[in-house]
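Summary: Need help interpreting a holo structure output

Steps to reproduce:
1. Submit the protein chain below together with the SMILES for zinc ion.
2. Request a joint structure prediction with the ligand placed.
3. Inspect the structure token block that comes back.

Expected: a single structure record containing both the chain and the bound molecule.
Actual: see attached output.

Input attached:
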Amino acid sequence: MAQFVEIKLIPRSPLVLSQSRNNQMLSSLEYVSGSTLRGAFAALYQSVNGMDGDFQKIFSASNRFPYLFLSQSGQTAFPFPKTAYSCKRYNGFETEVDKNGRNHHGVVDLLFLEALKGTCHRGKESLSFQNYFDSSYRCSVCHEDRKPLQGYFLENRQVKLFKGQRTHVGIDRWSGTARPQILYFLEFVQLPDQSSDYCLRGVGRWEEKAFEKLKELEHYPLFLGKSRTRGYGECSWQLQIQNPPSLDAFEQTLESFSKEAAEYCKVQKERWIFSLTVQTPTILVDAFLRYTAQEKEILRWLGLEAAELLYSYSELQPVWGWNMAHGMPKEEEWAIAPSSVYLCSARRSKENLKRLHHIHHQGIGLRQEEGFGQVWISHSFHVQYAVKKEENNG
Ligand SMILES: [Zn+2]
Ligand SMILES: [Zn+2]
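--- attached output ---
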């Protein structure tokens, strides 16, 4: 039986998290990718147990190694969706205060508004909405333009890892002496505050055997990222089995999101309206194995009865990986980028409920074992920060 496993990492030395192939300038990512995590566990496992009979089973496609994001008190950072906007002068949540004591001008989400724009008819009605549409792209406090928000949020604040840079002198491989003319710039990350309860966290799904065998290694440090030989990347870590997620709780979330979305977007309430917000790169292919973000392919991968796409804002990005079997980098693939967002509707049915619950907790698309395809169904962000239709009506 596969179980959901919470993985928590606490870096004990700075991490260099980079997927760049240019080794002269390594800039660090804001997360630990699933394939980085899997590689680190595989290296630790081998160093303790050697290549025993369980190795292939543990690191095969049946176990999902998730992406890890900054986390505090059980809440995990999520990338701002592409529909999240804020004032270009003071971007951030109203509750956030800058160093001069000024409040930021607030965060809005334009997903429902953009969907409404798509559904309302041309003519008189659309003219009366035009004010909302235009004014929603301006700050309601100072009337400057709003621009898309980037980065991550945790509840109602923006969060990021602490970033620093170091320069290293290259070593001549032939003579073993320093070559000052070759400099390596390393960007490293650390938890933003060492004393609080921050960690890097994700939830994977593993067979019992994998959990047992890896849990045995918990007292060894895990080394991950680049430049491990220079003392970067040492982490302590913890595994914990999670309770199976509740279908009832998911249904309530789906219902309340759907109700709000239907009212806002003026669409019929008989169907479920749900959002799909991409957390990690999501690899979808069409029948000819071509990478895709096309409407009909998204719907095919969702695998729901009578589903429709109401609105989408997505882009593709390249992804890489490591082929464990061949010990080689994988070919570049194309994935739907994190922060991409879709608003869909589907028939209310038990089957659709189960399918959406599955997607929410287990992901969608290819290479899920490396943490690709983690998505959030009906994220409360879209409801909580939906731009008020009346907000700028003057
Ligand atoms: Zn403003
Ligand atoms: Zn659930």
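--- end attachment ---

Reviewer comment: The CA atoms of residues 16 and 223 lie 11 Å apart. The chain has nine helices and 23 strands.
Status: needs-info
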